[in-house]
Design brief:
This protein is mainly alpha-helical. The chain is 78% helix and 0% strand. It starts with a helix and ends in a 5-residue tail after the last helix.
Length: 247
């Protein structure tokens, strides 16, 4: 009995060391990619500023971003570099998770998690691109619509770069993560936790939950909330089609 407990402790320690090593590999890649991204800060900022710049041009707004703190510019660029590093290191993270989990899986479960490795980064990218090309332009046009140039004292947006970039990167991340929903549900179906029937039965609660999540992850405006909730509802329905039925 004592020898068995020692073997179990050794096995647990080996798993913990492997997990720590794989997380370290991802962390190193994250730091390196973030460092490299900082060398292209102007190009990166141009990409992130585009949705607001286009909206400002359409509404004849002031074409600039400001910062009011001495260190705000540096900290904002630093956070944007970390965001780019995280975005670029997602494939590494997906592979390390798969490599850690793979030895303890059955063959059919391994195939399911291989889907995760290849499809998860793609779905994240699709969600981020949807936010970038569809949601952000609509959201910023909506926000700029509250400018009032004809009042006694003209009301016009003077956007802080830290607030704008924080909102933009937050939305890109939120949409990228939200678009992982079908993959997560399908994986749960592959390992026998969920079925198409259970998703259909849970549909009413899922609709409410999706709108709650959309309200939490997006700014407090109806446009961006609907732009997240409606695609998630569509993805949920598509997932039901690909889910296994009860045997």
């Amino acid at each position: 009995m004592g020898k068995k407990k020692i073997n179990e402790a050794d096995t647990l320690g080996a798993h913990f060391n492997e997990l720590r090593w794989r997380l370290l590999i991802w962390a190193v890649s994250f730091v390196i990619l973030s460092f490299l991204a900082s060398y292209f800060k102007e190009e990166l900022l141009d990409v992130l500023m585009r949705p607001l710049a286009v909206a400002m041009k359409q509404t004849d707004s002031t074409h600039r971003l400001i910062y009011t703190g001495v260190a705000e510019g540096f900290m904002t660029v630093f956070k944007v570099s970390l965001f780019a590093g995280f975005f670029l290191s997602i494939p590494v993270l997906a592979y390390e998770v798969f490599a850690f989990v793979c030895p303890g899986l059955f063959p059919h479960e391994k195939r399911a998690f291989m889907i995760f490795v290849f499809v998860a980064p793609i779905l994240f990218l699709i969600g981020a691109l949807f936010a970038y090309w569809v949601v952000l332009p609509m959201a910023y046009l909506f926000f700029l619509g509250f400018q009032m140039p004809n009042t006694m004292l003209p009301i016009q947006l003077e956007a802080k770069m830290s607030e704008y970039l924080s909102l933009t990167t937050g939305l890109l991340t939120a949409f990228g993560m939200a678009f992982e929903l079908p993959l997560i549900l399908i994986l749960l179906g592959k390992v026998g936790i969920l079925t198409a029937q259970s998703l259909i039965k849970f549909r009413r609660f899922a609709i409410v939950l999706i709108f709650i999540v959309a309200a939490i992850l997006t700014p407090p405006d109806v446009v961006s909330q609907l732009c997240l909730a409606l695609p998630l509802l569509a993805l949920y329905e598509v997932t039901i089609f690909f889910m296994p039925s009860k045997s």
